[in-house]
Specification:
Blueprint: H1 4-9, H2 11-20, H3 30-61, H4 69-103, E1 122-127, H5 140-147, H6 152-159, H7 169-187, E2 191-194, E3 198-199, H8 201-207, E4 218-220, E5 225-227, H9 231-238, E6 243-245, E7 251-260, E8 279-289, H10 293-313, E9 318-322, E10 334-342, E11 347-356, H11 360-365, E12 368-370, E13 377-379, E14 381-390, H12 394-400, E15 408-409, E16 423-424
Parallel strand pairs: 2-7, 6-12
Antiparallel strand pairs: 1-9, 3-5, 4-5, 7-8, 8-14, 9-10, 10-11, 11-14, 12-13, 15-16
Helix pairs in contact: 3-4, 8-9
The chain binds one RNA strand through helix 3, helix 4 and strand 6.
RNA sequence: GGAGCGUUGGCAGAGUGGUAAUGCAGCGGAUUGCUAAUCCGUCAUCCUGAAUAGGGAUGCAUAGGUUCGAGUCCUAUACGCUCCGCCA
């Protein structure tokens, strides 16, 4: 959510920012919004003047003589009717205004490349080389079959399309990766927190999942409850409506949770295997910091660095993308994605997404802190990044580390979490 | 699922239907100077205003209702605590 005062003072900048994100005046009409705001203020002022008069009348009743009272009461009553009418009108206008405000995306950074869609994303860094094999490599599904690591077909009979069951060492590997990342985040000062996958509606608006991605989210009408697509949802609202002390900042969370996504817009894409599933496990990095762009950009880089370390620990070749304005989600100010080399598809595939949201979410959740310098209350900045998401990352992992005998090499950093094993797989003793 | 009690500022905590006490913390100011104390103001949202001057409205979990007037009375909902039931 943006600040209406900022919008009024920076109309052109706002229009330009919206345009970069692919919005036109037909989607969001800034001039109309500002006019609506001015109308609301006018009506507010006149309504408040009436309220002031009514308060005066009410307070005078106590000291009024018994003869005067009936007249004052009648006067106050009729003024009350007028006020009610004004307030109903005001509520109507306010709802129109809020509707636009809740649909307004964040403005992108000046640094973000300007383009319409993902074609405009810019590779800013490559680490490692695409893996070369001196045998014919298998894809992750074949590898899982060779090693008795999955139940992909049986499980769809039970749980439907885009679900997975993995077993034996692969199942343990999935959990080992989360432990590796949780330990890494703890060493960077993050608080480990396992959070519910259930959420009420309000947090979805707070994060920006609603109203922007309604089709993506599971809803359970019998309980008026949603299934969370990311721990970010819950962490972003955990401190909603609070005024933190600046001394509490930054708040660093390593949030672990099962995540659920309908993948409604992805029909036909990545239908087989572990790349795109309805339910997965994610360790999420989440930061609440001061309202200072240098501070949040520092944390943005820091989160990116941590997830790069994760891919380096897993010894996966990867690239870093700076996401362009048109491919960024509505909440985002600036975004990097990490993509790991995926041999079977001969390309890099997304494993991490790292975003600076600035104050856009904090305004929606009313998350603030008291500034030490002047004692003023300010909206915090929030940031998020994948720590690790499984099973998707298992795809590049087992494909890149596969051996000719179908076993899979375990990188050194991960070995302590896998009982010291250097390889896993059927033929490994 | 059932019953009872509760929800007041950043925190703690008063509050007979008639302008939200008080303490602590924070911020601003004044004053005195020995590691700080004392006093005053401020402390959330919004409108008005050139204003970081002043004035005003709102805010006691949320949404309604009763009333000239609601933190206080009524209804519903959410959440919390205690107990009963069920349970990994």
């Amino acid at each position: 959510m943006l600040d209406i005062k900022f919008i009024i003072e920076n109309k052109d900048l706002v229009k330009e920012g919206l345009a970069k994100k692919g919005y036109t005046a037909e989607n969001i009409d800034i001039d109309a919004l500002v006019n609506l705001h001015l109308d609301i203020n006018k009506l507010k002022t006149s309504t408040q003047n009436k309220l002031e008069e009514k308060n005066r009348l009410s307070n005078s009743i106590k000291s009024a003589s018994p003869e005067e009272r009936p007249q004052i009461i009648a006067q106050s009553k009729s003024l009350g009717e007028e006020i009610k009418t004004s307030q109903e009108e005001l509520a109507k206008l306010q709802e129109q205004f809020d509707n636009v405000m809740w649909r307004m995306p964040n403005l992108p950074s000046e640094q973000s490349p300007v383009a319409e869609d993902e074609e405009g994303n810019v590779v800013i860094k490559k680490v490692g080389e695409p893996t070369k094999f001196n045998f014919t490599p298998l894809d992750h599904i074949e590898l899982m079959e060779k090693n008795n690591w999955s139940e992909l077909e049986r499980i769809t009979k039970v749980s439907g399309a885009r679900t997975y069951a993995i077993k034996n060492e692969l199942s343990r590997l999935e959990l080992a990766m989360h432990m590796l990342v949780l330990d890494k985040l703890a060493s960077h000062g993050f608080t480990t927190i396992t959070v519910p996958s259930l959420s009420k509606e309000k947090p979805l608006y707070g994060m920006g999942y609603l109203p922007f991605a309604q089709d993506e989210v599971y809803y359970m009408p019998s309980d008026d409850t949603y299934l969370s697509g990311t721990a970010e949802l819950v962490l972003n609202s955990l401190h909603a409506d609070e005024i933190l002390s600046e001394n509490d900042l930054p708040v660093l969370y390593a949030g672990f949770s099962p995540c659920f996504r309908r993948e409604a817009g992805a029909a036909g894409k990545d239908t087989r295997g572990l790349v795109r599933v309805h339910q997965f496990l994610k360790t999420e990095q989440f930061v609440i910091c001061k309202n200072d762009i240098n501070e949040s950009e520092y944390w943005h880089k820091k989160l990116l660095q941590i997830s790069e370390e994760v891919l380096q620990d897993l010894e996966l070749p990867y690239q870093v993308l700076e996401i362009c304005t048109g491919d960024m989600g509505a909440p985002k100010y600036r975004q990097y994605d990490l993509e790991a080399w995926t041999p079977s598809q001969n390309c890099y595939r997304e494993t991490h997404s790292c975003s600076n949201i600035t104050e856009w979410q904090a305004r929606r959740t009313n998350l603030r802190y008291r500034d030490n310098k002047d004692g003023k209350v300010r909206f915090a900045h929030t940031l998020n990044n994948t720590g690790i998401a499984t099973p998707r990352i298992l795809v590049p992992f087992i494909e890149n580390h596969q051996q000719e005998d179908f076993s899979v090499r375990i990188p050194e950093k991960l070995q302590p979490y896998m009982g010291g094993k250097k390889f896993i797989g059927k033929n490994v003793k």
